[in-house]
Structures are given as structure tokens and as C-alpha cells.
Amino acid sequence: MGTQQFTADRSAYLRTNAWLAALAMTSAMALLWVMGNAHVWTGAVAGLAAIIVRGWYLASEELTAVWEMDGERITGPGGRQVSLDQISKVRKMGSFVQVITRNGDKHLIKYQADPDATVAAIERAAA
User: Fold this and answer.
1) Of 7, 19, 73, 112, whose Cβ has the fewest other Cβ atoms within 10 Å?
2) Membrane-spanning regions, if any (predicted)?
3) CA distance to 35, 49, 124, per residue, from 42 (Å)
């Protein structure tokens, strides 16, 4: 088996941040409404601005992350390594794939274009 790479997808990154923006906008507006603020609409502006700044700031790091899987392990950014024989669970979380080891370590492979395919590939290799 050769090396397989799991790279971050720009469309998945933008889609995830759009959902975060919608959540931030709704939450900020609800909080202002509960507090009795007459300018509830400012919560939408603040929530959107916060996620745009966050997304712009993190894009260069998140979109360059590459995870590689060979016949023995998955290697990720920052020197993270997961032995395939130590994987106990792999699950999809939106555009993320969570890999859980037998000793409870958790790793996120973020912004996958097809997270179901990533899960299937890891499960096949770990079997």
C-alpha cells in the first residue's frame, strides 16, 4: 500500500466557516435580545465579523495541513502520529474526521472534501 494524503479542502473550509458565522450571528443576536438591548442587529454584524477575522487569520495554517497514511501509521501536522493498529474508532464530524486511539487520544483531520471517503480509507487500512 502506498502513501495516501488527506489535505484540507478550501470549499469545506469556507462552508464550515459559513456555518460558524451563522451560529455566531444567531447566538450574539439572541444574547443581546435576552439582555434587552434595543440594537439586536449589531449581534449579527459582530458575529459575522468575528468569524471572518478568525477564518482569515487561520486559513494559512488550516489549509496547508496534510495528514499522510502509510501501511503502519497516520502522520499529521506538528509531528502527530497514530499507529493504525491503535485506532479504536473513526468518525465523521461535519467536514472533520476524528480518529480515536485505544488509549483515548483524539486527532482531527480537518476540512475534508469527502469525509466519508476519508473515514472509509482509514477504517480499511486499520482493519
Assistant:
1) 19
2) 12-34, 40-59
3) 13, 10, 48
Per CATH, the number for 66-126 is 2.30.29.30
Residue range(s) occupied by CATH 2.30.29.30 in the chain:
66-126
Query: Taking a C-beta distance cutoff of 8 angstroms, is the pair 87, 105 a contact?
Result: no
Identify which of 97, 68, 73 has the alpha carbon closest to the alpha carbon of residue 87: 73
pTM comes to: 0.85
Burial of 24 (0-12, 13-18, 19+ CB in 10 A): buried
* Sheet of 81-83, strand order: 4-7, 66-69, 73-75, 81-83
Distance CA(29)–CA(35), nearest Å, equals 10
Q: Which amino acid is at 31?
A: L
Q: What is the dihedral of CA 61, 70, 97, 53, to 10 degrees?
A: 0
